[in-house]
């Protein structure tokens, strides 16, 4: 019946149905012939082109499948389901570099195209690149660093302190612990008064640092901005940075995932994104004089929420250069939550900063990839950071 319809009208739907019937019969060469007829009859429907790429993969023509997926995504990058299969075809046909170029071009043209960003993260190797990442800082140029944290958990603090100790080996540093903080703002105020380092990093106590050359990376990023963290937003319309939504979210955070690590990313502006207005408080670094000049508001932020929004927004309003870096390798062992206590602080923040009483994005888009161990997580972080230097040809 489908053949009769095709002969009578050259209707693309009939050819598409015949292609499906041939797939069911495992006659993939003939299925591809019918599918290409459907494409020719209805070139504006990407479903037929997508089906053609899948048929080519079924018949074992992985290079042809890749070419077909690439053609689909160049013309219709939002074709549902195409990016994961395109990524698989690229890996099987060993055309990762071409696939990365297509993904870069698509995402740069539409920075809300999450599947393209996910494809880029999935296409990168999770093994160290041949060239070293960044430059080392000679001992004479190493600045003293104070790591300030509020922690009433001895076990958790010990693990965090050991992690920073390894990451800052060879650097003059101290760990300043406030064990009885009434709030993070109050605790950080006391910790800041005790800190002696030229650079101060305020950090949660449930973090792990994977970068062995953390000091070099820290100093390098502070040479490009005044205050930076690992995740944040370029607009401030609500009392939490994730509410800014895409394409305003940037940075990278690592989370534990079973025995491995889950590397997340929010944009392709790596290894550093400038023009930030709100930064997540899991990690904040700056020169000591900046921390003292901005200060922490323990009256508005009298609990364990909102202190980061208030501090970074006031820093941005003061004309300081805020940024987020994606190459520090910081692991956060919790995701946080927006509970009743957060809501109470949010109301105070909105009263203090009326611009935060604006639009709240309903989604916090990010992409993620899980790797089995810390070494591969750090390699993926470094390869992702290099992504910011890459561009795609226009042709």
Shape: elongated
Query: Could you report the average pLDDT, rounded to the nearest whole number?
Result: 93
* Order of SSEs: HHHHHHHHEHEHEEHEEEEEEEHHEEHEH
| Residue share in helix | 40-55%
Distance between the terminal alpha carbons, to the nearest Å? 43 Å
Strand order of the largest sheet: 2-1-3-11-5-12-9
Beta-strand percent range: 15-25%
Structural class: alpha+beta
Taken together, the total number of domains comes to: 2
Question: How does the SSE layout of this entry go?
Answer:
Layout: H1 2-9, H2 12-24, H3 28-41, H4 46-58, H5 62-75, H6 82-92, H7 96-109, H8 114-123, E1 145-150, H9 154-167, E2 173-178, H10 184-194, E3 199-203, E4 207-209, H11 214-222, E5 227-229, E6 231-233, E7 249-257, E8 260-265, E9 272-274, E10 278-279, E11 283-287, H12 288-294, H13 307-317, E12 322-325, E13 330-332, H14 340-352, E14 367-371, H15 374-386
Parallel strand pairs: 1-2, 1-3, 5-12
Antiparallel strand pairs: 3-11, 4-13, 5-11, 6-7, 6-10, 7-8, 8-14, 9-12
Helix pairs in contact: 1-2, 2-3, 3-4, 4-5, 5-6, 6-8, 7-8
Outline:
The protein is α+β, with helices and mostly antiparallel strands and 395 residues long. The protein has 15 helices and 14 strands.
């Amino acid at each position: 019946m489908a053949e009769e319809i095709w002969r009578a009208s050259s209707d693309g739907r009939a050819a598409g149905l015949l292609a499906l019937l041939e797939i069911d019969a495992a006659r993939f060469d003939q299925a591809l012939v019918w599918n290409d007829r459907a494409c020719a009859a209805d070139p504006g429907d990407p479903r037929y082109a997508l089906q053609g790429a899948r048929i080519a993969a079924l018949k074992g023509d992985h290079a042809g499948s890749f070419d077909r997926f690439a053609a689909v995504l160049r013309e219709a990058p939002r074709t549902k389901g195409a990016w994961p299969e395109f990524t698989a075809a690229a890996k099987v046909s060993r055309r990762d570099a071409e696939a990365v170029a297509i993904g870069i071009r698509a995402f740069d043209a539409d920075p809300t195209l999450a599947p393209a960003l996910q494809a880029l993260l999935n296409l990168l190797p999770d093994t160290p690149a041949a060239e070293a990442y960044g430059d080392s800082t000679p001992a004479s140029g190493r600045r003293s660093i104070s790591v300030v944290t509020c922690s009433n958990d001895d076990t958790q603090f010990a693990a965090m302190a050991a992690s920073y100790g390894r990451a800052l080996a060879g650097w003059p540093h101290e760990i300043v612990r406030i064990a009885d903080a009434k709030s993070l703002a109050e605790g950080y105020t006391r910790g800041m008064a005790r800190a002696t380092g030229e650079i101060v990093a305020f950090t949660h106590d449930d973090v792990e640092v994977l970068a062995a050359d953390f000091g070099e990376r820290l100093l390098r990023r502070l040479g490009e901005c005044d205050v930076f963290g690992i995740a944040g937003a370029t607009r401030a319309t609500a009392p939490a940075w994730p509410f800014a939504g895409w394409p305003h979210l940037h940075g990278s955070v690592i989370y534990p995932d079973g025995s491995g690590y889950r590397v997340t990313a929010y944009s392709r502006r790596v290894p550093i994104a400038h023009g930030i207005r709100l930064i997540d408080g899991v990690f904040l670094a700056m020169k000591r004089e900046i921390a003292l000049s901005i200060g922490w508001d323990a009256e508005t932020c009298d609990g364990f929420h909102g202190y980061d929004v208030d501090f970074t927004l006031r820093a941005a309003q003061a004309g300081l250069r805020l940024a987020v870096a994606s190459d520090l390798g910081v692991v956060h062992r919790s995701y946080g939550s927006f509970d009743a206590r957060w809501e109470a602080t949010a109301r105070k923040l909105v009263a203090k900063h009326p611009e935060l009483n604006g639009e709240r994005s309903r989604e916090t888009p990010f992409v993620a990839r899980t790797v089995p161990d810390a070494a591969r997580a750090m390699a993926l972080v470094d390869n992702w950071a290099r992504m910011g230097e890459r561009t795609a040809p226009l042709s």
